[in-house]
Amino acid sequence: MREPGNPGDPASGDDALYRPGSFENYRTFGLGTLPAEAFSDADRAFHDDVQAWLAGHLPYEVLLPHRDRLGLDLRPHHDGRRLLPCEVPLPDELLADIVEDEVPDLAVQTERITGDPFERATVGALAALAWVDDLVGNRRAVDAWMEDERDPRLVAAARRVDRAPPCLYFDGVAQLPLSARMTPPSGPQGIYVARAYRLGEGWAFSSRVDFPRAPDVATLQRRLEVEGWRLRTRERRATWEDVLRQRSEVVYRAVAEGSRLKFAPG
Questions:
Q1: Rounded to 5 degrees, what are φ and ψ at 108?
Q2: In the structure, what pLDDT confidence band is assigned to residue 234 with cuts at 50, 70 and 90?
Q3: How far apart are the first and last CA of the chain?
Q4: For the chain, domain boundaries
Q5: How far is Cα 129 from Cα 96, in angstroms, rounded to an integer?
Q6: Got the DSSP string for the chain?
Q7: Predicted local confidence at residue 58, as pLDDT
Q8: What is the per-residue pLDDT across 91-122, written as a single tens digit (0 to 9) for each?
Q9: Most Cβ neighbours (<10 Å): which of 40, 46, 51, 189?
Q10: Is the Cβ–Cβ distance between 147 and 233 less than 8 Å?
């Protein structure tokens, strides 16, 4: 079992540790006026209060002055690129096999998706783990696989699915704001998180994890917005879709927690 990083997000592991923000990025893209020492102090105070909020010790409103002082707001910053269609599908079974081949301590790492050390991983949860950073050295499992895969159509499909942000869907309807170019017109029935990608003239859903009940969407979006602020302490050019892609395990884990009615920070 991974060491719990935060009592409000026990599967976060090292994600709960402080990672300094980029002062250079802040001055270049955040149009900030704080000197370096004040920025460092503000950045660390923001991290500490986020962890306290996740643990349920502080209300959400405490985070807003940090957001404003550090210039972290995401709205209305969307990725305007379109998704290119894939020639062939990228099966979840393939991604799951890649993870089983590439990822050490797989049972432990699966918590990053499920949030539950006792939950048996589905094929979709293993597929979702293929996109998580730093599981194979400093790479993702899918990156390690693409270096050796000989089918260029599958590699192209993986690169294009990589651009598709994971999102919560109710009967194929996206429950989080997405760029219009990345929003499918419809999808299969159910409550699930998946990456909707273009396949030929239609759409398909990769890394799909189903849930028995819906989480509270407003709580989920707030959780992910805060995750976006954390990301933007290092890169203020990050879009909302970048947050969903780069912090994909948090998308899945927060939905899982919400579905189990465990996640309820103030």
A1: -75, -45
A2: very high
A3: 27
A4: 92-210
A5: 8
A6: -PPPS-TTSTT-GGGGS-----HHHHHHHS-----HHHHHHHHHHHHHHHHHHHTTSS-GGGHHHHHHHHT---TT----PPPPPBSS---HHHHHHHHHHH-SSHHHHTHHHHS-TTSPPPHHHHHHHTT-TTSBTTB-HHHHHHHH---HHHHHHHHHHHHSPEEEEETTEESS---GGG--S---SSEEEEEEEEETTEEEEEEEEE-SSPPPHHHHHHHHHHHHHHHHTT-TT--HHHHHHHTHHHHHHHHHHHHTT-----
A7: 97
A8: 999 999 999 999 988 888 999 999 988 888 99
A9: 46
A10: no
* CA–CA gap between residue 96 and residue 94 (Å, rounded): 5
CA 78 → CA 21, 196, 253, 257, distances in Å?
Answer: 22, 16, 23, 26
pLDDT at 264: 45
Q: Using CA atoms, how far apart are residues 208 and 83, in angstroms rounded to an integer?
A: 18
pLDDT at 13 over 70: yes
User: How far apart are the C-alpha atoms of 120 and 156, rounded to whole Å?
Assistant: 30
Bond before 4 cis per omega within 30 degrees: no
Contacts of 39 (CB under 8 A, 6+ apart): 21, 23, 26, 32, 70
pTM for this model (two decimals): 0.92
The total number of residues written for the chain in this structure: 266
Using the Cα atoms of residue 229, residue 233, residue 235 and residue 237 in order, give the sign of their dihedral. Answer: positive
